[in-house]
Structure formats: structure tokens, C-alpha cells
Queue: 4 jobs
Job 1
Amino acid sequence: MAVDSKYDVFTYPTTNPESGAGHPGHTTPEQDELVAQLRKELEADGFTDRLDTLTLLRFLRARKFDVALAKKMYTDCETWRKEFKVDDLVKDFTFVEKPQVFEYYPQYYHKIDKDGRPVYIEKLGKINLTTIKTITTEERLIQNLVVEYERLANPRLPACSRKADKLLETSCTIMDIGGVGIQSMYSATEFLKKVSAISQNYYPERLGKLYIINAPWTFSTIWNGIKVFLDPVTVSKIRILKGPSEYEAVLKEQIPAENLPKEFGGLCECQGGCQLADAGPWNDPQYMEPAVPAATTTAAPAEVTENQI
């Protein structure tokens, strides 16, 4: 990978032999030049954080290596981070109401797939925003989502990269839509639009695979109409699966049975429930190093900020 000594200081692998074109270690000289150009323009505008090559490549890939579009995406993201006070949230936010909220909207990371990526599970079928709002606020729901995105970037992905001995930048997602009712989805539409926008606009290139399970037969028709508007690369990452007889075998092809919760056909039964366990390499001491050194002793600036987007 073409590196910049000022920003590219990491404590985990930075290349993956299985990654595709445009990923770290798999770029052309022209793409390396675009990374340098984007960094130079952002520095000229006064930006100093999150200018490492891994981050800039994600923004460039998200915008097909169009520097102007990637720059706008990055600057919009930095503006949002400041307005939303993301760095303060990461330090101070505690979602104490999680057990109660997860009774109605479980969304959690749980162990890893066969590629070493964090597995993210979300059960939309249980969402009841009206009840949830008696437990917490929509603002705190979104704050928790943002904090979890930040924790995906650090410590989850660095820990998984160390364990796998290769760079991992994405997650494997299971989205259970079984039991989704028209009324519950209608009431949650605006909330889901907000969280979807945060994911797409501010955390690009984080989707590895997405399994939508327990899909009713009508969903396939809806999906066929939606996917024509999506990037073919995104579509290739998504599989629509029906009930357990269809999805259990497919999930176990990607996720070890011992890592897959029993409710999805796996063998895992964490004490206290998988959805609250936060089990994974990110909680294993041998993989829990800082994502970057606290300081460097080279001629570069002492502070080197790791990608937390």
C-alpha cells in the first residue's frame, strides 16, 4: 500500500490479499495519485484528522474515485461530526437503557464470520418505536447507533484484522425482517430514513455482506424494483432469504455455527443472551491494542489520528 508517513501509522494489518481493486494494496498508480490529491486539497482547507490512506480510499471508492465528489462527501461528514459532537459521544455516551430497548429493537455485534469480519444483527421485525419512546428518546437511539459505528471502526475492525492477520474494513450483516407489520414500519419510517442516511453518507464502504432473512414472498417483488436503482457492487453484497429452511444453511456457509446465535440456526447461546454479550475479538485482550500509537517519535507530528469513520 502506498503510505503517507504523516498519517499512516497503524497497529494492525493494512492490506488484505482478498480485497478487490481500489482497496489498500490493490490500487493503481493513478488511484494512489488521487489519494494524494484528495489529501492535499483537504489539508489546504484546514483538515487534519482522518486523512489516512484507508479512510481516503473508502471515500474515493464510494464516489468512484471522483476527487471532487469524494471531497464533498468527506467535508460534509466532518461538518456533521462536529455538529453531532461525535468525538464527545464516543468518550461519554452510555446506553444504560439498552436491555429494555433491545426487547423491541435488537441491534448488536456478535462474534465473527468465516472471513473474520464482525457480524452485525438487526431485528426489524420486533421494532415498536411507540413503545421504545416510553423507554428512551429518538435522539439517544441515534446517538447509540453512531457510537456503535465508531466502535466498529475502533476497536472492532482493528481487533478482527489482528486476529485474521489481514485488513478487514467491513461487517457481515443479518437483517431479520420477519414479522414486520405495515403499521409498525410506517411509524418507524422517518427514524429508519435518518439512520440509513447516517450510514450511507458518513460511514461509507462498511458493508461486506448483507443477508435479509425471513423475507415474505412480497418482498422479492419489492426488491426487484429497488435494486435497479442501486450500484451493482452493492447489489452483489445482498441476499434475500425466506424462512429458516432457506436461510439457516446459507448463514452457516458464511458464519461458523458456534458463532451464530441459536435463534438463527447456530449453536451459540451466550449467558444472558447473545444480543447483550458483545462477544468478539474486540473483547479479547490479545487483540485489544490501540488502533494507532498514542504518539510517534519520527519527524511527523506527534498526534496521528486513526480512521474512526
Job 2
Amino acid sequence: MRLIGTKYINEGVKLAKPILNDHGLVLINSGIELDSNRIKRLMELDISYLYIEDERTNDIYPNPVISEKLKKEAMQTIEKNFNEIKNAVTIQKPIVMEKAVSTFKTLIGNVLDELQTNKELFALMSEVFLYDNYIFSHSLNVTIYSLALGIELKLSRKELEILGLGAILHDVGKMDIPLDILMKPGKLTQEEYEIIKWHAETGFQMLRKVHTMPLLVAHCAYQHHERLNGSGYPRGITGDTIHLYGKIIAVADVFDAITSNRVYRQAMLPHEALEILYTGINTLYDAKIVQAFKKSIVLYPTGLSVTLSNGEKGIVCRQNKGLNERPIIRVLEKNGSKVVPYELDLKVNLSITITGCETVL
């Protein structure tokens, strides 16, 4: 299968992976041929990338980060508990939060179990989901990225459990923000931006009152928008005043935001998002954390078309863990002409590099 930008899809191609909603129900199944109406609808739904069938790459299949069953369970758990928190009156919030925390602790443990037995690099582009609320999917993605980072940084199981809880709840304060502001397609006014910024303070105040949860979890919500040089919010704290978990979640939060399709901009590919993180090293983000993150994630998703420095073109067919900038490529073209497909391992062929990526047919 091949990873293709939705805006470049031609009529007649077939889906290689189904499109699901956040309850795990299939909206468009694999094998379905896409006509102009379906393609238009996919564009309207802000889906940036799809996996399509291709006879020379149909055996290429990306591995999920966590099982479909666990992802479905996680999304339903986040949605249910966040909505209960949103709908609870102020006096009831601490009780509702305590119940949610207990549920989330179990969920984090299950996610950790799967991540720690996963021998693959972490890639969240391999599944195409449509979500009713971006906060739910973002909370899960940030949790997975944060835990992947924590595993790479060799945090203990207890530390990972606290980090995971902080990550899954980092945006809980946004449940008090009107959806018309959160999902606004145009530029926010200064007043609207100030309302958005307040979610870090709101989340902290919600979480610090939950006596069954470490106070550090509340500080994850408080600090995930702080930056090393003091340019963040809500307090503008700097350097080591920001807790390690706040720094980890900051990187995971920004990366997922950049690589997710939003109403106001198109998603970027992982290597493009990582370049943006690197420009902020030692000013916005901790260098050690960004470098550990690079080792943890897929930079060039399986199925992506790439151009190599020797003039060959092909599809990423497998990943090399620990050397994610050097995957295994199935070469399909050389010097502008099609060739009998063969594999080229960039871990072995060190003189050859990826010079470009395409999401067009």
C-alpha cells in the first residue's frame, strides 16, 4: 500500500485501510473504489492522508502502535470521562475527577503494557480516524508520544504511570472553552487567544483538588505550554523551573498538533514536524528530549514515496529501529524509468540518503 495525500488522489483508486470513526466503526471500508463524490467528502472532512492499494506495494503494511481494541477502548474512555467532567457542576467536579483518574490509571497501565512490548517505532499516521472532538484524539496521541519518550529516557514504571496520567489530562482545562473558539477555522482574536491560554490554569486548578492523584499530574497541565526561554504561558517560567514531565509533554503536544489535520491548516509529515522542533532546541524545547523523541518515532511513515540521493525513487517498506532516518526502501524507479522492484536498506547503504518525500501518485 501507499501513503497518498488526499488532495492528490485520482478517481478509481481503492482504499487499502478502512476509515473509522472514534468509536471504531467503519465509515469507508478497505477495497472501496473512490469516486469524485467520496474524494470530495474526504477533503471536506479534513483527512490529509490515506493508504491506497498499489499492486507493487500491496504487501507493505504499517504496524499499529497499539491494538485496535485498546485504541477504541481508550477513545471511548477519554470521551466519556471528559464529557462527564465538562457537564459536572463546580461543586461535583472533584468527585467526578477522582472517578476519571481511577479509570485513566487503568487505561495508562494497559497502554504502557502494549508500548513496552512493541518492538516497532512509534507512528500514529497508520490509522485514519474521524473524530467528533479533536481534544479526545489529541489527548490519546500526546499520551502515546509522551510514554514513548519516557521509555526512551528510561523512566521507571511508576514515573511513566504519572507521566501518562499527566499527558492524558494535559488539556482537560479545554473542556471549559466554547467549541466555536476551539474549532474556529480563522485567526483567533486576541481575546479568544487569551481564553484558549487560560486552559492551562483551569486544568491545574481542576486537577490539584483531586486528592487521589499526585500533584505533579496537575503541574503537567500547568506547564505543557511553558518554554525554556520564558516565552510560554501561563507563568512564563524558564529552564529547569519547568519539570521534566512538562518538557516532555510540550514536545509531544506540539508534534501531534503539527502532524494532525486541523480546521485552520493541513497536517505535516513527521520529518517536517521534527524539523520545526529542532529549530526550537535550547530556546523553546529541551535538546535531550527532542533528540530522544527523534529516536522513538517514525520519521518516514511506511508506504511513503521517497526520492534518494542516487536518483532512485521508491516506497518506505520497513523501519530500522534506532535508525529511523534510514528505513528500508522498495525501489520502483531509477533515473526516471521503472525497474523491477528491489529493496535498499539505508542502514547498510550509508552513502545514500532520502532527499525528498512525495504524497502524490
Job 3
Amino acid sequence: MAEQVRGVVARRKGKAVSVETVVVPDPGPGEAVVKIQACGVCRTDMHYREGGISDDFPFLLGHEAAGVVETVGEGVTDVAPGDFVILNWRAVCGQCRACLRGRPWYCFDTRNAVQKMTLLDGTRLSPALGIGAFVEKTLVAAGQCIKVDPAASPAVASLLGCDVMAGIGATINACGFDLDVVIDAVGRSETYEQAFYARNLAGRVVLVGVPAPPMKLELLLVDMFGHGRVLKSSWDGDCLPSSDRPMLVDLYLQEWLDLEALVTETIPLDDVEKAFEQMHHGHMQRLVVMP
């Protein structure tokens, strides 16, 4: 039976979000319903609210999430009810050219849940980054669920769904351990230009922050010729979720990574709009929603 849960919805561009009743269908083939335990507040969700990602409103916000698998659909074997998981933006196909080359982060045929969560009136919701996790329960493709050690704090584990993975992954998987690397974690034309000119002539620029679609970059072509070297983006840290997320959880549990220090405050679903306001004015570090 479909379930009714509370979730944070952005109905219109630039308008305050609201906590509304969300209808979550039973999982179909290859899908899973996950009870969300924690979801980090990320600037990308504010971009969704402001129409900076797409105009496919209404959005079910939240994507940096950890929780427990509640039910799975037909044919799902990699996860089971009761598994503690971190959610990925997408499930990879494992069969395309990128996957077969060992670069699944560039998968050409990624997928999310086929079914849509809706509002009570039947309006279909667009889940942020294919997840939609500012909600008590969400529907995803089962391949978006990565099992990790349940000893990890849900708040900490949620940050590995985006924030920490994007930063650490960009350093380890995209750049190696070179000293001539500049990472643009903001995703604005101004910061990318600064990054371009800040590194040395043999250096690399790695774009981690998500830019809004209208943003443009103007650089002198002669500077591209003289300073080009490597210019690349890093999606979710170019990670292999099935191995990298559990690895970071293990490093956290072994006290190699002090991830607890990153969680500055936990808040309920009803305070998400306040969190966005703090983020807009630069008055917050890392808040985590606990549905």
C-alpha cells in the first residue's frame, strides 16, 4: 500500500518551501523505499528551490541522505529491509562503455526510480538529484542504496552522500596527490576564473561546485593555450559508491576522519526554510535534517 509521509516541497521558483504530505508508492521492480534518518542541508537544494537547476517544479528537496531500507521491489538482491544505507544520486547500469571501462561515475545510462512520488492531489514530484530526502521515507532505484556499517552515526553518514564524498573524492580520484591542483567548490564563474589563474602552468582545475545553467565563463583563448593543462569537473567526487562510501565510513569509525565535527546542528523538517535563509546569508556551517 502507498504510504503518506511528511516532506519538504518547493512549489515555485524562489518561494519559501513548505512541509506537505507526500505519497510514496510501494517499490516496483528494481526499486526500494528507504526510511530517512538524516539528510544534510546542501546548497544544491537551495539552487533547486531558486530554479537554478531546472524548472521541473514542484521539487521534493534533499539529496545528502542516510537511512534504513524498509521495503524492496521485485528482483532486488543487493539490499534488503533493515540495511543501513547511504543514497546515491543515481544507479549505474554496469553495461555501458563508461562502466565497462571502470569509470561508472560517467555512466551513460544511469537511472532513478521509475515511479513518481506525488502530492495528495496526484501532482508528480521531481526528487532532487533523483533522491528527494527531506522526507520521512523516499522511493529510489535500489542501485542508489549503498550498504555501510550501521555503527556510523546517521548524521555523519548522510554527509558522505554528497558533501564529504565530493571533497575527498575530488582530491583522491580526480587529482591524485599533486600539489598543482585548485578545486572550485563553489561553482561560479568568478571562482572558476580565480581557480584557473591561481594554479601553476602545469596544474589542474577541478570543478566540484554545481553551477547554475545560465552561468557563462569568459577566458582569453591565448590563456587557455598557455594555461590549459587539465580542466575537468568532478561529479560526486568521481567516486565508486559501492566501495568508496563504505571505505569512508570505516575511516570515520576508526577515527581517521573526524566527521562528527562537520555536523554543527540537527534540525526537524519544519526548519529547512530557516536553514536555507542562514545559508543564503552565509551564517551556517553544516546542518542535518532529522525527519
Job 4
Amino acid sequence: MELVEKGEMLPLMEEFYTIQGEGHHTGTAAYFIRVGGCDVGCHWCDVKESWNAETHPPTEITSIVDNAVKYANTIVITGGEPLTWNMDPLTQRLKERGLKTHIETSGAYPLTGVWDWICLSPKKMKLPKEEVYNAADELKVIVYNQHDFKFAEEQAAKVSESCELYLQPEWSRREKMMPEIVDYVMTHPKWKISLQTHKYLNIP
């Protein structure tokens, strides 16, 4: 559909007001907009139902913005992989309403949209575009096994010096990997630990 390709409509999976559970803004209230569509294919993804964009109805961005403005000053666009789509129209309208725009992305597609905060969570299967490395405010690497520490360092070398660095255990492996992450951060203090605190709090 032409309107979807232009970003005037987006395959909306869900939208909800909650507490940001991960990374730099952990503990702050935010309105989440989850956009369907992702071909990165992380085997441990906890929202695989977001992958197929065709299962999520194309929704006009004006209605998405009208809903968002009711709840919060900070809007987090997530997925799926939101950069699959043109984020310029949505972020422009959010900014016109005075809202802060955050994105959580693998960076696998060209950067579109106007962002106050870019959380880059790179994946080995489809590495980020250089422009997303350069623009990232926060690098969040998911740690599933020991090899991910090497991957994290490779990714950290590609972002700016001001980018904050986080290691986050994959949820199903948190008990096994957390001691290793703690040890790693203590010996490599440029990194911080991110936890999926919303899961501990039992909120979305």
C-alpha cells in the first residue's frame, strides 16, 4: 500500500503506556508504539508475533499520534524493526505536538525520523548501517552466550565516544549469564548493565 510505503500509515501491532524497563531511561514513564515487520530473525526474540507486518493492520499515523499525546511526553517507537518503514512522517507529527521521540532499533535499515534518543541494539544476523552507528545515543547488546562479549566490543568500536554502552542478558539465560556480565562490567567499566526490569515488575 502506497500510504504505508510513505509512512503515512504503519502496521501497528500495539500501543501502551508503561515504564521503560531497559537501558538509559529505565524507570521512566513512556508511551510505546510497537510497529510490525522485522526480517532480522533473532531466535530468542520475545515478540516474534511482530515479525509479519501483514498480520497487523495499517493504521493512520494521525490516530497513533492522537492516542500518544493523551498519555506521555516521551514516545518510544519499537518493533519489530521500526526502520523497516519511513519514520519521518510519524516523528514529524509527534514533534509538532511537543513530544520526545525515542527509537529502539537493530539499525539494519537506513535511519529515518527525527529522534531525541536512539537506542541501537545490533544483531549479528543483519548488522547496523553506518549512519545508525554514528547517530546512536545508546548501544545495548543482548548477551546470550560468551561469544556475545566479543561481538559487543566490535560494536562498541563503531559508535561515537559519547554513546552509552549497555550489556543486557537475554531473559531466558539471565541466571546463567548474569554472573559473567557482572564480572565483565567490573573489569571493563565503560559498560553498564541493563536489565529488563519491566519483566521483574510484571508490567508490559
